[in-house]
Design brief:
The protein is an alpha+beta fold. It contains 8 helices and 22 strands. It has 3 domains: 135 residues, no CATH class; 137 residues, no CATH class; 71 residues, Alpha-Beta Plaits (2-Layer Sandwich), CATH 3.30.70.
Length: 373
């Protein structure tokens, strides 16, 4: 701690020329990496199905009566009568099946599906999802799923203990769904392209519009793009352009990106992520901790020989308090490297650094947005 304080006191008295550093190089990215096409979004699908073939780890019909009802209905549809029969197979589980229908997906292509247990099944390992229809928000069936379930977690159980690693009540069926209906798409009939930034920013949106207009002026003789707001850039279709080929050319254009300065803090895991543009104004920081140690050392008291006394226990408690830190240090972060080096040299745990960052933000010296997760 003494070394840290001497270091920052020394840095505080250095000349501004010594503390100044060259600005970080501007980051460039392709348009396809920072923006997505509004007409090319995913659509969510959902369905209800049964998983069979489990090794006694399925639903109990008393706790999950809907599993038995679903199984009887399935067998009746297959022409098998179940009237008057009672069964309690633990190799069946009811699951919810979810998937994302990618844009411009055509019938016959395959997509991955996720399955999650609805009842009291303990594991879906080794099971097979039987034919399940997947519907969209409009109620129409767009895909049918079936296949073996892949579960990453496992459970080992003995007579006295049980070991569980990961989640065993959810899994995935790679390529398990076949698309049966395509979404109504009018991409070719559109009169414009709407680019949506994944990280909304006015500066980046303006730069995208400028780059697209520079390309369009050289190719079609005039500008075609306009930044609507921090997230959307609208590109008008030139009369002589093919929309698919135009999008293929635009998405490979390189743009200089810009993002606001942020500090992201996760208090549960102690993770701290500091952006490259974060700055800290000169500020005095004092960090100290109080440690209280309680030690119990009971003493055994024996009676005198040939007496009628009994053995007794005399309690003895020692309490010690130790306070560390408490000195004031000067913290100045004109660039990311200096700020990170200063926080590391403080010598405190991540929770202490989080408290310091929150205090600096409250003092108005942190020139960035503090995001707490």
């Amino acid at each position: 701690m003494k070394t840290f304080f001497r270091l920052f006191v020394a840095l505080a008295f250095l000349s501004p020329n010594v503390m100044a550093v060259a600005p970080a190089a501007a980051m460039t990215s392709r348009i396809k990496d920072i923006a997505s096409l509004q007409a090319g979004r995913d659509n969510q699908l959902i369905g209800y199905g049964l998983i069979v073939g489990l090794q006694g780890t399925g639903d109990g019909f008393r706790a999950s009566p809907f599993t038995e009802q679903s199984m009887r209905a399935m067998l009746q549809n297959l022409g098998i009568s179940t009237q008057g029969s009672q069964s309690n197979p633990k190799n069946t589980a009811a699951v919810m099946v979810t998937a994302n229908l990618p844009p411009f997906a055509s019938p016959g292509s395959r997509i991955d599906v996720d399955v999650s247990s609805l009842g009291d099944a303990t594991s879906l390992r080794g099971g097979t999802l039987i034919m399940t229809s997947l519907s969209g928000a409009d109620g129409q069936i767009y895909a049918v799923a079936q296949g073996s379930v892949v579960v990453s977690g496992f459970t080992a159980q003995g007579q006295a203990s049980t070991l569980t690693e990961g989640v065993t009540t959810s899994g995935r069926v790679p390529g398990g769904a076949i698309i049966e209906r395509e979404l109504p798409s009018r991409f070719k009939d559109s009169v414009n392209l709407v680019l949506q930034l994944r990280n909304p920013d006015f500066s980046t949106a303006i730069r995208i519009a400028d780059v697209v207009n520079g390309y369009a002026s050289a190719r079609f003789g005039g500008p075609v793009a306009e930044a609507k707001d921090a997230q959307e850039v609208i590109v008008q279709k030139p009369r002589t352009a093919d929309l698919t080929r135009l999008m293929a050319d635009l998405e490979n254009l390189v743009v200089e990106t810009d993002t606001p300065a942020k500090v992201v803090v996760n208090e549960r895991t102690g993770t701290i992520v500091i952006g490259a543009d974060v700055r800290v104004s000169p500020v005095a920081v004092s960090y100290g901790t109080l440690t209280v140690q309680v030690t119990e050392t009971p003493q055994i008291i024996q009676p005198e020989p040939f007496s009628r006394g009994v053995t007794a226990v005399q309690p003895q408690t020692d309490i010690a308090a130790q306070k560390t830190g408490g000195k004031v240090a000067l913290l100045n972060g004109p660039d990311l490297k200096t700020l990170v080096a200063g926080l590391n040299n403080i010598g405190v745990k991540p929770d202490g650094i989080i408290a310091i960052l929150q205090g600096i933000k409250s003092a108005g010296a942190l020139q960035a947005e503090l995001v707490l997760q």
